[in-house]
Write a structure and sequence with these properties.
Structural class: alpha+beta
Strand content: 5-15%
Order of helices and strands: EEHHHHHHHEEEEHEEHEEEHEHHHEHHH
Distance between the termini: 77 Å
Shape: globular
Helix content: 40-55%
Number of helices: 16
Number of strands: 13
Length: about 550
């Protein structure tokens, strides 16, 4: 076992802290759309200006600069709208800083790998733990140029971070680059311009507890009426009192509608966002609110009724049900999905697969699901995997972050906990110890199915190996039990294992030798010791 890294301790993943539901704004009139576009364009322009000011402040940001920016925005909108814009600006700037730190880590990982491989002789073979030298002088030269480029890029990003500079594009950098590839994207300039402007709009408002229906700027009544408090320059567009515009549509949240209705009835904070899907030409209203932090159950309580181990793959989840002692029950289950196509299609596929997995977990009666704590942040670079482009695309396509958020949120609604385990060696050890023993004429076991067992056993606190080494024969009573499959209080745990039922009588034993079929004995020696021998009087001669 030399060289095996130390494994992280399993832990129960904290539950979700927020909820978001969405409904479509149907049957909007042309006047409604005109007002929504005007509000979105006006507030989007204010948001862009505020983001520019926040990026200019950099690390010199303080409460005074925040208050000054909010006062400037209040003159052209309202105090609540200005607060929502400045809060969204701070969230966007903080996200850019986190992405900047992650980019620096990726560059440092690539630089370390390049320096290591360039230091080795050309043609030096690699090992399982580290890559070897490059295969030719030409490749060595190109990689040295690649190292110089990464070092220059790393120095520039580090300088930006130390100075507090971030690169943020309102509307999205990907959509911005699409402007130069309209033919490949299948868009005209007018279509791209419409999508670009819609992405830069800002029609959102944070909730406020104690206010009517939980939000004073975008108000939704229990019967579904939607009204918006217009900014000061657009107050002439109002069709209701106090500078409000009431939409002609009505909404009804089908998902979590009762929970939303309870919140607005108690005047608890609910945040709303209105946006336009330019591809479909549809308007949507998203409602979100925070939940109180739910205390996670202890790890031992999550293990009490067994576990379902789930191995995450590029096209399916491989799951296996285990009892609390780590014994696999039944057959493996696979929940497939397709991650090709658009982002919406991929997200729907993940949701459907997780729904089937969670419903199965509820049926078998477990309290938790064990899953790997995957993170491919430093594992998908060109320097790490070289020419294995398909493998890099494979691990890059697995939405680990979205998968974690979806699974935790959906499992919490069914009363299930998520136990995260270290992913090291699960596929290797699962295939070594579980794949072959569980194969039967009616059951096929893949390496992924065996990895699901390894993950489940690690989540339960058991070793991946099926049985521990047996004690010496003369000290079996002192050396302890030879298996980790049963608890100390289980009846018969010290007994011998039953004979194999799949071996025919008289057939070869597992070690290859042929054994004789036992037969019933007819000798007197087999009689019980309490029976007395009485001679027959008819045959007795003396």
């Amino acid at each position: 076992m030399g060289g095996v890294r130390k494994l992280a301790v399993p832990f129960v993943v904290p539950g979700p802290c927020g909820v978001a539901v969405r409904d479509r704004l149907k049957h909007l009139t042309s006047r409604d759309e005109e007002v929504l576009r005007a509000v979105g364009e006006h507030q989007g322009r204010l948001a862009s200006r505020d983001l520019k000011a926040r990026c200019a402040d950099g690390l010199e940001h303080s409460a005074q600069t925040w208050a000054s920016r909010k006062r400037d925005l209040t003159k052209e909108s309202s105090s609540r709208i200005a607060g929502a814009i400045t809060k969204a600006t701070h969230d966007q700037w903080a996200l850019a800083r986190r992405c900047q730190a992650a980019h620096i880590q990726t560059l440092e990982a690539g630089i370390r790998t390049l320096r290591h491989r360039l230091s080795l002789p050309v043609g030096e073979p690699g090992t399982k733990r580290a890559a070897g030298g490059y295969r030719s002088r030409s490749e060595w030269f190109h990689k040295s140029r690649r190292l110089a480029a990464l070092e220059a890029r790393h120095a520039a990003v580090v300088a930006d971070r130390q100075a507090g500079r971030v690169r943020v594009v309102r509307g999205g950098r990907r959509l911005l680059s699409t402007r130069h590839h309209l033919a490949e994207a299948g868009l005209t300039e007018e279509q791209w311009r419409e999508r670009w402007e819609a992405e830069r709009w800002f029609i959102a408002a944070d909730g406020e507890s104690g206010k009517r229906f939980g939000n004073e700027t975008i108000r939704v009544t229990p019967d579904g009426e939607v009204s918006i408090r217009l900014p000061a320059p657009l107050a002439h567009l109002a069709n209701a009192g106090h500078g409000r515009y009431v939409l002609t549509t009505r909404i009804a949240f089908a998902h979590r509608g009762a929970e939303w209705a309870d919140r607005i009835a108690a005047n608890r904070a609910v945040a709303y966002r209105i946006h336009l899907d330019t591809r479909r030409g549809r308007w949507y209203l998203t409602a979100s609110w925070q939940r109180p932090v739910v205390q996670t159950i202890p790890l031992e309580a999550a293990r009490a009724r067994g576990m379902i181990g789930v191995d995450t793959n590029a096209d399916h989840f491989a799951a296996y049900h285990l009892d609390r002692h780590g014994n696999p029950l039944g057959d493996p289950h696979r929940f497939g999905f397709d991650l090709s196509g658009t982002a919406g299609h991929r997200d729907a596929q993940i949701r459907h697969a997780l729904t089937r997995l969670i419903h199965w977990a509820v049926r078998v009666g477990v309290a938790a699901i064990g899953i790997e704590d995957l993170d491919f942040t430093t594992e998908k670079t060109r320097e790490k995997h070289g020419r294995r482009k398909r493998f890099r695309q494979l691990i890059s396509g697995i939405p680990t972050g979205k998968l974690k958020a979806r699974l935790v949120s959906m499992a919490a609604e069914q009363g299930l906990s998520i136990v995260a385990v270290d992913p090291a060696y699960t596929s290797r050890w699962g295939g070594q110890h579980w794949q072959k023993p569980l194969v039967t004429p009616h059951r096929t076991m893949s390496r992924h199915d065996a990895a699901g067992i390894a993950i489940g056993r690690r989540a339960l606190g058991h070793p991946v190996r099926r049985r521990t080494a047996p004690p010496p024969h003369d000290r079996s009573d002192r050396a302890g039990h030879r298996t980790a499959q049963a608890g100390p209080g289980t009846r018969g745990r010290e007994g011998t294992r039953p004979p194999a039922t799949d071996r025919p009588p008289g057939g070869p034993s597992p070690n290859g030798t042929r054994t004789r079929e036992p037969s019933a004995s007819h000798t007197v020696r087999d009689a019980p010791s309490t029976q007395q021998w009485v001679p027959d009087s008819l045959t007795h001669t003396g």
